[in-house]
Amino acid sequence: MKKTIVKIGLASAIALIGVNCSLIAGSSSSVEIVNRKHKTETFKVYGNCGMCEKTIEESLKNVRGVEKADWNKETKMIEVTFDAEVLSLKEIKQKIADVGYDTDEVRATEKAYNGLPGCCQYERPKSNNEHHKHEHKH
Ligand SMILES: [Cu+2]
Fold first, then answer.
1. From the CA atom positions of the chain, what is the Rg in Å?
2. Mean pLDDT of 129-136
3. I need a labelling partner for 1 at 20 to 30 A (CA). Which of 17, 42, 46, 72 fits?
4. What separation in Å is there between the alpha carbon of 28 and the centre of ligand 1?
5. 97 C-alpha to center of ligand 1: Å?
6. Is residue 54 part of a domain?
7. Considering the domain boundaries, does residue 63 fall inside one?
8. Do both 60 and 107 map to the same domain?
9. What is the distance in A from the centroid of ligand 1 to the CA of 48?
10. What is the pLDDT of residues 14-72, one digit of tens each?
11. In the 3-class helix/strand/coil scheme, how is the chain assigned residue by residue?
12. Ligand 1 midpoint to CA 74 (Å)
């Protein structure tokens, strides 16, 4: 009789641990555990809408060393999982700038920015290294 109670107690304890484990596995840190060579960085990319999201994420899609890129249009933050031995964070930001999107570190060229669809022409951050240039006024 006593034995049965102990058994039941153990079984429920294991069940509880099981639940906890699956909760931990579901958290955002699971990527880093699975692949230690990759690291995940989160930074701001200026943009507007769902179309921006597509363009930004596609700019990193077939880039060697980039595992995953996920931009959030609400927060304007991108989460990139990449292999730091293959490419640097700066190179990733350059890829994003190449398709027309600014980050705080790498700025897109006027040409790339102007090439974006009208709805995607987000409000650009003030730049430090272009203060000597004329502001384009309509
Ligand atoms: Cu857009």
1. 23
2. 53
3. 17
4. 26
5. 14
6. yes
7. yes
8. yes
9. 5
10. 444 444 434 444 444 444 445 568 999 999 999 999 999 999 999 999 999 999 999 99
11. CHHHHHHHHHHHHHHHHHHHHHHHHCCCCHHHHHCCCEEEEEEEECCCCHHHHHHHHHCCCCCCCEEEEEEECCCCEEEEEEECCCCCHHHHHHHHHHCCCCECCCCCCHHHHHCCCHHHCCCCCCCCCCCCCCCCCC
12. 12
24 CA from centroid of ligand 1 (Å): 34
Kindly state whether residues 15 and 44 are assigned to the same domain.
no
Residue 26 Cα to ligand 1 middle (Å): 30
Same domain, 46 and 107: yes
102-126 residue pLDDT tens: 999 999 999 999 999 999 999 998 8
Q: How far is the CA of 34 from the centre of ligand 1 (A)?
A: 33
Q: What is the dihedral of CA 102, 105, 111, 114, to 10 degrees?
A: 20
Q: In angstroms, what is the span from residue 135 Cα to ligand 1's centroid?
A: 23
